[in-house]
Amino acid sequence: MTDDTTPPPNRFPEPGDRLDGATPSAETLTLLARRRSTAARAMQEPGPDAAQLETLLRIAQRVPDHGKMTPWRFIVFRGEGRNHAGAIVSKVFAGANPDAAEDTLAEEAARFSRAPLVIGVVSSVLENHKIPEWEQILSAGAVCQNLLIAANAMGFAGQWLTEWYAYSPHVRDALGLRSGERIAGFVHIGSPGEPPVERLRPNADVTYWDK
Ligand SMILES: Cc1cc2nc3c(=O)[nH]c(=O)nc-3n(C[C@H](O)[C@H](O)[C@H](O)COP(=O)(O)O)c2cc1C
């Protein structure tokens, strides 16, 4: 990884700094036009180092946020922590599936170990606030997308997953999720292995109001 993929801290503006209203960048357009997820199981070492992780988390949070509420937080799974999280997932799975085969349980235990780094983006909604919950949730989704784009621009592959365990009350409790919190995504990040192949992208219906 070259140094130019890690912006120095002084590239991050301070409140009140004058910024560009637009940043023409053919490279950014190309990245967005060609961005593709890589399956977590196809990811390899290395993942982002500590400085790159810090940059990723900082860039990820540069999203529109109605009311400046920061309605998200992160849980970073790396190193041995990935096995601890996987053990929780496997135990919960075994509880619900007492007849599960050993290799199925091993697969569940490896959920967080496919990629070198997994960033859990937690949507932390403040209920009954004047900013609608829907908007707070959308901001957390934007954080996930920023992570994918920033990881790609740093030279890493990414995949945004939830899988069954994001919705398991037992796993949520074990990960320390509180009331009003949901997993927006477990964003898997690592070095790309096998290059991804473009998928079908059906176009959305567009309605034009121009007269
Ligand atoms: C909120 C959210 C959750 C997702 N969860 C899963 C999942 O559990 N399993 C899966 O195979 N793909 C999941 N995906 C889709 C993957 O991110 C997938 O790699 C992606 O849609 C591929 O498209 P892309 O190459 O345009 O990124 C999820 C996507 C989103 C937005």
Could you characterize what this model shows?
This protein is of the alpha+beta class. The radius of gyration is 19 Å and the shape is globular. It is built from six helices and five strands; from the N terminus they run αβαβααβαβαβ. The chain has a domain at 36-78 and 113-192: NADH Oxidase (3-Layer(aba) Sandwich). Helix 2 (50-60) packs antiparallel against helix 5 and helix 3 (81-96) crosses helix 4 (102-109). Flavin mononucleotide is lined by residues 36-37, 159-163, 185, 199.
Write the layout of secondary structure elements.
Layout: H1 26-34, E1 43-44, H2 50-60, E2 72-78, H3 81-96, H4 102-109, E3 117-124, H5 133-153, E4 157-161, H6 169-174, E5 181-192
Antiparallel strand pairs: 1-5, 2-3, 3-5, 4-5
The protein binds flavin mononucleotide.
Give a brief rundown of this model.
By secondary structure, the protein is an alpha+beta fold.
What is the CATH domain class of the domain at 36-78 and 113-192?
Alpha Beta
- The helix/strand order is HEHEHHEHEHE
Task: Name the CATH superfamily classification of the domain at 36-78 and 113-192.
Answer: NADH Oxidase
- What's the shape? globular
Number of helices: 6
* Arithmetic mean pLDDT: 96
Strand content: 15-25%
The helix-and-strand class reads alpha+beta
**How many beta-strand segments?**
5
CATH topology of the domain at 36-78 and 113-192: NADH Oxidase
Bound small molecules, deduplicated: flavin mononucleotide
Tell me the span between the first and last alpha carbons. 51 Å
Helix content: 25-40%
